[in-house]
Write a structure and sequence with these properties.
This protein is an alpha/beta fold. The chain has a domain at about 25-140 and about 195-225: Rossmann fold. Helices cover about 20% and strands about 35% of the residues. It has 6 helices and 12 strands. The protein has helices spanning about 20-25, 30-40, 55-60, 75, 115-125, 195-205, and strands spanning about 5-10, 45-50, 65-70, 85, 100-105, 125-135, 150, 155-165, 170-180, 185-190, 205-210, 220-225. The chain has a 7-stranded mixed beta sheet, sandwiched between helices. The protein has a 5-stranded antiparallel beta sheet with strand order 1-10-9-8-7, with no helix packed on it. It is globular. The chain starts with 5 loop residues before the first strand and ends with a strand. About 35% of the residues are buried.
C-alpha cells in the first residue's frame, strides 16, 4: 500500500486504497452529462484514472470513443468496450493525442506535488491541437465541511469522516461507505488548492482555464496555453 493510503472492506484494494468492488457499486451521477455537454460529439477521450469504468461506460453509450488508463489491473478488468492501458498516469507517453483528456476523481489534488506535475504534464502531452482537458476539482468546502454524510437514493451512505493536516499543506482524508451488506473505508492524502493555486499548476504544465463548467467550479475545461 502506498504510504498515507489505506483501504478496508471486501475484495481487492488498489495501492492507493481504492476498493474495486466498492467502485463497481457506486452510481454514476451527472458527470457523463457534464462531460458530454462540454466536448464535441463523438470525441476520442483519453480517460486518466478510469477505475472500473464508472464513467467510461456511460461515455461509450453516448457515442464517444474512450481509451481508459489506470494502474490497477483489477480495476481495468471491469472495463468493457474501451481500449485499456495499465500504468501510472504521471509517466504515460502514448505518442498520440486525443480530442479530450480527462482527469477526474480529484486526482489533481494528490498530496505529492511532483505527482501532480506529472499528471498535468501527461494531460498537456496528450491533448490534440484545438482539443481540451477536463479536470474535476474538489469543492470549496471539501476539507472544511467535515464530518458530513449523504444517503444515496439507491440505499447506501457515504461519509467524509475526517480530514486531518499531516504537514506541507496536505490533509489525510477518511471516507466511509456503508451498504446494507458491506462497508468500506478509504484513507488518502489530498492537497487543497485555491482557484489561484489550481490555475498556477495548470500554467506550469502549459495549460489554462477555458471555462469553469459547473457553478461550484468542480468541473473545469482547460486548453493549451496561448
Amino acid at each position: 500500500m502506498r504510504e498515507g493510503y489505506e483501504g478496508t472492506g471486501p475484495g481487492a484494494i488498489t495501492p492507493d486504497g481504492c476498493a474495486v468492488e466498492l467502485y463497481s457499486r457506486l452510481p454514476v451521477g451527472a458527470e457523463p452529462d457534464i462531460i458530454a455537454a462540454a466536448v464535441p460529439p463523438g470525441a476520442h477521450i483519453l480517460e486518466l484514472g478510469s477505475g472500473v469504468g464508472r464513467m467510461t461506460h456511460p461515455l461509450l453509450e453516448r457515442g464517444f470513443t474512450v481509451t481508459a488508463v489506470d494502474e490497477s489491473a483489477e480495476m481495468l478488468a471491469r472495463v468493457r468496450g474501451a481500449r485499456t492501458i495499465r500504468g501510472p498516469i504521471e509517466d504515460l507517453d502514448l505518442g498520440e493525442t486525443f480530442d479530450v483528456v480527462m482527469l477526474a476523481s480529484f486526482l489533481v489534488h494528490t498530496g505529492d506535488v511532483e505527482v501532480r506535475r506529472g499528471l498535468l504534464r501527461t494531460c498537456a502531452r496528450h491533448v490534440a491541437e484545438g482539443g481540451c482537458v477536463l479536470i474535476q476539482r474538489e469543492g470549496e468546502d471539501y476539507h472544511s465541511n467535515v464530518p458530513r454524510e449523504r444517503v444515496d437514493p439507491s440505499g447506501f451512505t457515504i461519509r467524509i469522516a475526517s480530514t486531518e493536516p499531516v504537514g506541507d499543506g496536505v490533509n489525510s482524508v477518511r471516507a466511509e461507505y456503508e451498504f446494507p451488506d458491506a462497508a468500506w473505508t478509504h484513507t488518502f492524502l489530498a492537497r487543497p488548492l485555491t482557484k489561484e493555486q489550481f490555475e498556477e499548476a495548470l500554467a506550469e504544465a502549459g495549460l489554462e482555464v477555458d471555462e469553469y463548467l459547473t457553478p461550484d467550479g468542480i468541473w473545469v475545461r482547460a486548453v493549451r496555453a496561448a
